[in-house]
Design a protein that fits this description.
It contains eight helices and seven strands, in the order ααβαβαβαβαββαβα. It is α/β, with parallel strands linked by helices. The protein has a single domain, classed as Rossmann fold (3-Layer(aba) Sandwich). The protein has a seven-stranded mixed β-sheet with strand order 3-2-1-4-5-7-6, with helices on both faces. The longest helix has 16 residues. The protein is globular and about 50 Å long.
Length: about 230
Amino acid sequence: MSERYARQIPLLGDKSTALLSDKLVMVCGLGGVGGYIVEALARAGVGKLLLIDNDCFDESNLNRQLFATSQNIGCRKTDEAKKRVISVNHDVVCYTEDIFLNKENIPILIKKYKPDYIADAIDNISAKVSLAFNGEKMGIPVISSMGTGNKLDPMAFECTDIFKTSVCPLAKVMRKLLKDEGVKKLKVVYSKEQPKVKEKTVSSVSFVPSVAGMIIAGEIIKDLCGIN
């Protein structure tokens, strides 16, 4: 174990391995953003991961989703994500939930698993708001991905509080809904880049949502190690 984490200990601290191995992170959504969150957390040695998604891989996922391969089209994202995690780090304990998150089941899941951190990489706005609301209510830190579709500049991402965001249409909607729910803060990763296309079907490339996922994972790891 010491050799596995030897390269990151000088950066994260001597106690980082023990700190991370004792934590459970709830990752909501295993697509273009969420897959990279999971990958980075597993490689860093987060001890337990709760992987949540109700979807299966299809061919359109191959251009950007880490866990999608030509061989697993039609397979459940949770199953494939768990296989990947175990292949990368067999010390990680993986829990999976094949469900569509909503305001009814989110508090139930949080109370059941008692995560130390919640990563929101889903598209459903009401569920995103519910994750933020319940996280704040239960004292669990949440970090949420804003829109990564129709973007081409991976360097335009920023990590800040939702109420300091601008440009991003999703963040604008979220700000209002969070205010209505009385949520006072939410750490987010968002882009100030104006959308490159405006079509009903959201466009996406490999090098944009992946960067958002890695930024989110980095924030989680640093927070859990007491660096931020």
